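Incident review: delayed structure delivery

Summary: a single-chain prediction request sat in the queue longer than the usual turnaround. Root cause was a stuck worker, restarted by the on-call engineer. No data loss occurred. The affected request and its eventual output are reproduced below so the record is complete for anyone auditing the incident later.

Affected input:
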Amino acid sequence: MKNIVITLSLAVAIITAAIVLDRKSVDSTSEPTIAKTLIKCDDMGRVVEETTFNLQANAWIETSRSTKEYSEESVTLVNYKSVNGDWVRVSKSVCTYDDENLISESTYQPKDGEWLLTSSVSYADLSNDETFEDILFDKDGNLIMSAQYQDNNGIISGLTKEEYVYDGGLNPCKKIGYAWSGSEWQKTEEQSLQYIR
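Output delivered after worker restart:
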């Protein structure tokens, strides 16, 4: 069960990073983006690639892709966006684990054909962490909502939020994304999730 939660959490992080990096602003009067994501899994059921398509002019257009590589102690996530039909690297993160517990995360941005380290976080001591998460599971242990908030001197603001819908299986079939408008969450995207092996 921990592996499923960790894998699903990493999938959420990848999709969120791709959406957040490509989003300029939130317009509360606009309709949410309609999207679908194809998710490829390995023989162990771990997500190894996700490709997201947005509905534009009645056609499904590839907009973002994420890949994952697994080792015994780490997971490497690489995010791409589609630019004129080519996949351009957007970001990379390396998460390290100890007995399935996340202990550190390093984030990189592409620069001159190399990866430039932009941040590194250790989760060994979270006592001074200014961000926190709100996670909700249903009675079967399925993740149905994940939100991240920031506390800035007592003023709480939302960073990311996703809700998941299940069709009776172990994996979600739909994801709904939200962005913080300054005072509340605004729906920004709906995705159907399709799994392939």
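Verification: The two ends are 20 Å apart (CA to CA).
Action items: add queue-age alerting; document worker restart procedure.
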